[in-house]
Amino acid sequence: MKSKLKNLFHGWYVAMGCCLIYFFVNSMTIFVPQTLFPRLMEEFSVNEAEISLTVARTLLFAAIFSPISGILIDKYGAVTVL
């Protein structure tokens, strides 16, 4: 029994944990602002279109800079870029 546990690769647990963390962080970025829209509209006296632009700009920014950051990470390494 000990030999089976000794040969077990634990990297898959780390990878699965990272995927779960990414799932929760990414879902908060996408779904939480919509729940705050009524309060933000009241606070800043804006309509739905103006407040929706905040999410659109965030996603556009991510779409533009994700490939650029990927190229930089491939070239210089993740630690250097971060």
From TrEMBL:
PROSITE patterns: MFS, PROKAR_LIPOPROTEIN
Molecular function per GO: transmembrane transporter activity
Boundaries of every Major facilitator superfamily (MFS) profile domain copy: 15-82
Gene3D superfamilies attached to this UniProt entry: MFS general substrate transporter like domains
Transmembrane segments: 12-31, 51-73
The keyword Transmembrane helix is annotated on this UniProt entry: yes
Entry keyword set: Membrane, Transmembrane, Transmembrane helix
InterPro entries assigned: MFS, MFS_dom, MFS_trans_sf
Protein name: Major facilitator superfamily (MFS) profile domain-containing protein
Organism name: marine metagenome
